[in-house]
Amino acid sequence: MGSTDADEDQLFKSFLAEVSEAERDNEVLRILGCFKLNPFEHLKLSFDSSPDEVKKQYRKLSLLVHPDKCKHPQAQEAFAALAKAQQLLLDPQERGYILDQVTAAKEELRAKRKKELKKDSASKIKSQVDEGKYEEQYERSEEFQKQLIIKVREILTDKEWRRRKMQMRISEEEGRLKKDEEETKEMWKKKREHEEKWEETRDQRVSSWRDFMKTGKKARKGEIKPPKLKTEDPNKSYVQRPVKRA
Q1: How many CB atoms lie within 10 A of CB 64?
Q2: Quick check: helix, strand or coil at residue 39?
Q3: What span, in angstroms and rounded, lies between the C-alpha atoms of 164 and 146?
Q4: First to last CA, the chain
Q5: Helices 51-65 and 2-32: crossing angle, nearest 10°?
Q6: What is the DSSP secondary-structure string of 179-243?
Q7: Residue 123 class from Cβ within 10 Å (0-12 exposed, 13-18 middle, 19+ buried)?
Q8: Second label for 45, Cα 20 to 30 Å away, from 70, 88, 142, 196?
Q9: Which of 7-11, 164-168, 214-218 is the least confident region?
């Protein structure tokens, strides 16, 4: 009887271990499936979470997917994603940037909501009577929060795409400037080499010019020069003029 109870306890422990392992695997998949530009999603936190809540949630989730305790092949990747999410949310500048996009998303949703209220007279009257409480209640609703997450994704995606395009243009411009610089260096290098070669042959050129000035242009060896023709010039004595006869 005691042996049966021990077997059941062991079976129950194995069952709990399997459930825990499945939970860890599911958490790994959830983290890796999150929108990469929103660290709040990785940590399953609302946009108004404090830095202390970020640290607490990170400790909780990181223990769940730690590679030493989770057998999932992508546990290390999920663990790194959580660490990065915490780093971003604890950095004032990065956190401020994300919250600015959240504010922009809320403004867009509020503007959309305002247009919808114009068509719904009952909701508009209720909103005016409650003096804003109706809208506050709506923004705390699950429906609004879902819309907010989607809108934040859209804005962050647009911002990131613009940033990458700008970075690409900057890289292209830097590449062009580098190419121009290299071509200019190559041009000056060739010019310098040409000037050095010209200077090296200076003595030879000067010597050749002096020899030319002394001896004039020499005929090539074996070259036969054509005879010079006498010009029929009446002032020259060697020209025979025709004699007129009576």
Answers
A1: 20
A2: helix
A3: 27
A4: 175
A5: 120
A6: HHHHHHHHHHHHHHHHHHHHHHTHHHHHHHHHHHHHH-SPPPTTPPPPPPPPP--TTSTTSPPPP
A7: middle
A8: 70
A9: 214-218
75 versus 198: the higher-pLDDT residue is: 75
Entry field: residues in the chain: 246
Identify the band that residue 209 occupies on the pLDDT scale cut at 50, 70 and 90: confident
In angstroms, the CA 33 to CA 26 distance is 10
Is the Cβ–Cβ distance between 64 and 22 less than 8 Å? no
Which pTM does this prediction carry? Answer: 0.60
**Count of CB atoms situated within 10 Å of the CB of 20:** 13
For tokens 């403004």, what's the residue?
107
Single-letter residue type at 221? K
Confidence band of 3 (pLDDT split at 50, 70, 90): low
Burial 78-87 (b: 16+ CB within 10 A, else e): bbebbeebbe
Contact assessment for residue 60 and residue 20, using Cβ atoms and an 8 Å cutoff:
no
The torsion defined by the Cα of 95, 101, 105 and 108, in degrees rounded to 10, comes to: 140
